[in-house]
Amino acid sequence: SSELTQDPAVSVALGQTVRITCQGDSLRSYYASWYQQKPGQAPVLVIYGKNNRPSGIPDRFSGSSSGNTASLTITGAQAEDEADYYCNSRDSSGNPVFGTGTKVTVL
Amino acid sequence: QVQLVQSGAEVKKPGASVKVSCKASGYTFTSYGISWVRQAPGQGLEWMGWISAYNGNTNYAQKLQGRVTMTTDTSTSTAYMELRSLRSDDTAVYYCARLVRDMVLNWFDPWGQGTLVTVSS
Questions:
Q1: Tens digit of each residue's pLDDT (9 = 90 or more) over A34-89
Q2: How many Å apart are CA B22 and CA B6, to the nearest integer?
Q3: Beta-carbon contacts below 8 Å between A and B
Q4: Which of B105, B111, B115 to mutate to test the interface with A (most CBs of A within 10 A)?
Q5: Mapping DSSP to helix (H, G, I), strand (E, B) and coil, where does residue A28 land?
């Protein structure tokens, strides 16, 4: 079972803001990275570390962290942001572990 | 551009082995690690392990210890993942991803396109 817990699903109105959370004890010591996965496609890195975006990722994606919770925020959600989102950090052994995933629906 | 290209889909019988390849281009292969991640149908992402392309050191997920082997060929910038004693619950899409890690963070970028491995009698 994953040591990083995410809400299974969230919805957001077009143009509004949505926050996706990832909870786990390891997040008190390690940063998270976040991945977007659309149906039938490989995951894509959208945020890593404190709040770093790879080139090509829109600035409506941002990351933050507090205590045992990491968050990915989409400000002004677009239809193309509808996807599954996974966080990643480390488990109690220091190995990478993925969160349970959140399905984002844009209404 | 940085790219990882994986081998094609496989169909295997229970008990058999499968070896998936991942060819890297656009960067210095030995400067990064390669991780393998799998995704069963309709399920989430599962980290399988990683290999340092610099020195070949490996670290495997505990549940796969003894069944998985990850290797690299630096002459062709290719990583390999072999999984043995296949079971039906090994049916999944297998991804390779370039791994960057430091003391407090790891991230995977880019990812290969995925290889579907189907285990069926």
A1: 999 999 999 999 999 989 999 999 999 999 999 999 999 999 999 999 999 999 99
A2: 4
A3: 64
A4: B105
A5: helix
